[in-house]
Amino acid sequence: MDYERLFTVAETARKPKKLSTADATFVKTTIPKDLADYPKWKRPAKIKHPAGFSVSGAPVGTFIRSALLMAGRKALGGRYGGSPFYEQVEKDVSFGIMRSHFHNDYPKGAYCCQQCTLAVYPLLEAGALRYFDNKALAKNVRRLIDEGGWRFATAPNAKMLDWSLGA
To answer: I need a labelling partner for 107 at 20 to 30 A (CA). Which of 33, 115, 118, 163 fits?
Structure first.
């Protein structure tokens, strides 16, 4: 799986312009084939994000899922064109957010940690998760970031924060 290309396509997907035909084909065909083992696929231990920061450990999977959904939404439409692969990714991210709140009593919209919460924030901002009132959750996460609440009492990596907020 070409994760560097995935992140590049996901960055393009955050902008108003259309994906190239090659990028759309990559998202629609190549990714689901390359990640056919999802959700039990072998994730890299560490990734270098094009925004200039590195991620390791559990947040790698969350950043990859976020990139998949950003790219998938752009290539397939608001509800992932009925793609079973992208719908499964959407469910996994959504259930992770729900588990964090209902099982662990984390703030609404937050994920397991600061990095993973920053990874899913752009999805909430884009309204990419059909199971939620994305605007309300995005607003809550943004308040946590701005006020230094919950896991944001310690300042996040500046480049990661800028990427998450779209700065």
So the answer is: 163
Contact between 119 and 111 (Cβ < 8 Å): yes
**Angle value at C-alpha 83, between 77 and 85, nearest 5 degrees:** 120
Q: What is the pLDDT of residue 151?
A: 94
The span from the CA of 112 to the CA of 4, in Å, is: 24
Omega within 30 of 0 (cis) for the link into 39: yes
> Distance between CA atoms of 91 and 14, rounded to whole angstroms?
20
| pLDDT tens for each residue of 82-135 | 999 999 999 999 999 999 888 888 999 999 999 999 999 999 999 999 999 999
CB atoms within 10 A of CB 43: 17
DSSP 106: P
Number of domains, the chain: 1
**Encoded amino acid at 91, one letter:** K
Q: What digits encode the pLDDT tens for the residues 24-40?
A: 999 999 999 999 999 99
Dihedrals phi, psi of 55, to nearest 5 degrees: -135, 140
Cβ contact 72:80 at 8 Å = yes
Indicate the average pLDDT of the chain.
Answer: 95
